[in-house]
Amino acid sequence: MSTPYTPARSPRPIPGTARRGPPARRGVASVLAMLYMVIFSVMALGFYAATTTASQVASNERTSLAALLSAESGTQFLRYHLSALDIKAGLTPDKIFEQVYQQLAERLEPTANLNGGVVGYDGNTISIPQSGYVKIDPSGAQKFRITMTRAGDILVARVVGRGGSVSLGRGLEFRFQKANNATAIFNFGVASRGAVSTSGSSTVTGLTDASNGSILSTNTTSGMP
Question: Which domain holds residue 107?
Fold first, then answer.
């Protein structure tokens, strides 16, 4: 006679003991969230710093270019007025420098360019204007200042331009030398519909042969040759 099998029963846990498993990992999600927050914060700060730096560099470039354009404008301004001066021949270099100051003062001081200012002169330096700057635009964002000294009979001009920032400017230096401004019209033949009159020791000569110089006048007034 066979004995039937009966299922084995699992042993009961001993009272007062607990089953041990893998240790619980609490707070991992919070640590990961804080880590990502730090990473994104660093990336945001880096982006802000890069954008701010690029903006500052662009602003400096713009101001620098505006200052250079102001200096070039001042150079053209000075060239125009120096070309209009009439300095007598035979003057010593110091007298020529004084004449440059006097004639520039007569030309510039009554104009709106100096805005009521004057041309400065201390015997060695001519300043346009005496203080401040010549404004290019009404707001004064672009402006220039000119100082001139002499080296013998050469006029040394320094033009400083500003583009809105007093601390940032661009400068140019030029040297000017006097040149004869005599007319060359009487070095050739002269033709005129009206009367031609000369005075002093004026002569009419040909370009390659002095005997070829002549005057042609079509004036029909009675008594005229």
Answer: 57-177
Residue 73, domain member (yes or no):
yes
Joined tokens for residue 27: 């707070």
Write the pLDDT tens digit of every residue in 116-144: 889 999 888 999 988 888 888 888 788 89
Q: Which of 167, 166, 159, 139 lies closest to 70, judged by CA?
A: 159
DSSP state of 164: S
* pLDDT at residue 159, rounded to an integer: 92
> Across-strand partners of 169?
162
Specify the 3-state DSSP secondary structure of 196: coil
**Same domain, yes or no, for 161 and 93?**
yes
Residue range 25-40: mean pLDDT, rounded: 78
For 27, list phi and psi in degrees, rounded to 5. 85, 5
CB 164 within 8 A of CB 141: yes
- The predicted structure's pLDDT at residue 158: 92
CA count, 13 A, side-chain hemisphere, 10 = 3
Burial 119-153 (b: 16+ CB within 10 A, else e): bebeeeebbbbeeebbbbeeeeebbbbbebebeee
pLDDT of residue 127: 92
Q: Is residue 48 part of a domain?
A: no
Task: Assess whether 212 and 147 both reside in one domain.
Answer: no
The per-residue DSSP string of 85-147 comes to --PPTT--HHHHHHHHHHHHHHHHTTSTTTTT---EE-SS-EEESSSS-EESSTT-SSEEEEE
Whether 192 and 143 share a structural domain: no
Same domain for 162 and 134? yes
Whether 140 maps to a domain, the answer reads yes
